[in-house]
């Protein structure tokens, strides 16, 4: 809830951030995002080695992957609420430190339960990063640039995933799976101090049409503020449409990111190093192309129509559905790689635009909480559950892992696309409502 009253500490931080400072902060946040996804994806690269060492079946491996995502989902909301009323850069620094220690400790584990615990702590650390980082980026750069900026930031998801898969697989193949965790955990400790020393931007500085007055964080009762924000969100239909689309897309992303390296080992008889390299290279290359095109196209369309960013996201899901289906039906390595690459390009078109739409319809003082709610539910019902569900299907069906991916991924992507079609009818109205709320006199 907007307010003009700020405590002295917040007044001291209320300084204009220069273009150079914003670019430095963006570079640090991008680096952190790369490490974020490298830390979480390295498990996927080394799962075959861990399974052989610890004697795990598909369901056990799925539970191990879900442990991080489940805790991540639960912790995201309270940390998102915290980010709406505290210094966001400090929250990011704390979270990076926690997850880097947890990843490093994973390399010291000796059994399933110890590794499960380490991955769960990793979820706590990473949960606070996304809401705070997205809120920061919304205040470092003008809203006209958000599609491009958030698309560039989202590239970190894919570069990090690729690094985790490629380097994790190669390191595990030559030095063991524990060394792979050390490789991605230790660098995170080095960037913690960089984000801690960056400058906190004013909230909402770029969001008032025709004015530069900022919106500060609310400092009242956290519980009261939270429920007040939830009441605001209930009246924004596009927000809930996006939430449903996120759930189905996260289900597919979660299962694919965990199981594709193992699928390549089993279906195409690749080594763990080769499987990590192929999956990582395809994800990085395809996602880089798709994300850059999606960010540019979304901002260009947004200047012509208020539905521009959501339209790009809808097209991404509708194009990606048949391509994913075709890829999983192919049993020859080279054709699979080609079609899977094109599918990744198509699906990556939506990465920046979807996050930008949330910023377009939510007032700045509520964004981190709104993103926290999305991430809580999308992770809880999407990628936190999908690795275990796919593992269960694989363990109880003769078709194994390939069948499990085939019956889940295309269906969820199609549902995400259909849901986004409904949002095209509501997003313009919700954007206007957000601007009207910003221009209301502050209490």
Give an overview in words:
This protein is mainly α. The protein has one domain (18-199, 233-436): Growth Hormone, Chain: A (Up-down Bundle). Helix content is 80%, strand content 0%. It is built from 18 helices and no strands. It has helices at 8-13, 19-54, 58-83, 88-106, 112-127, 129-140, 146-175, 177-196, 222-234, 237-268, 272-302, 308-329, 333-348, 351-361, 367-383, 386-395, 400-423, 427-438. The chain is globular.
State the major sheet: none
Q: CATH architecture, please?
A: Up-down Bundle
Q: How do the SSEs run, as a string of H and E?
A: HHHHHHHHHHHHHHHHHH
Question: Would you tell me which CATH topology applies?
Answer: Growth Hormone, Chain: A
Count of alpha and pi helical runs: 18
Low-confidence stretches: 1-14, 210-224
The helix/strand class is mainly alpha
Give the count of structural domains. Answer: 1
CATH superfamily, by name, is MFS general substrate transporter like domains
Percent of residues in helices:
over 70%
Shape: globular
| Rg over C-alpha atoms, rounded to the nearest angstrom | 21 Å
β-sheet strand percentage: under 5%
Mean pLDDT: 84
Report how far apart the termini are. Answer: 9 Å
Number of strands: 0
CATH class: Mainly Alpha
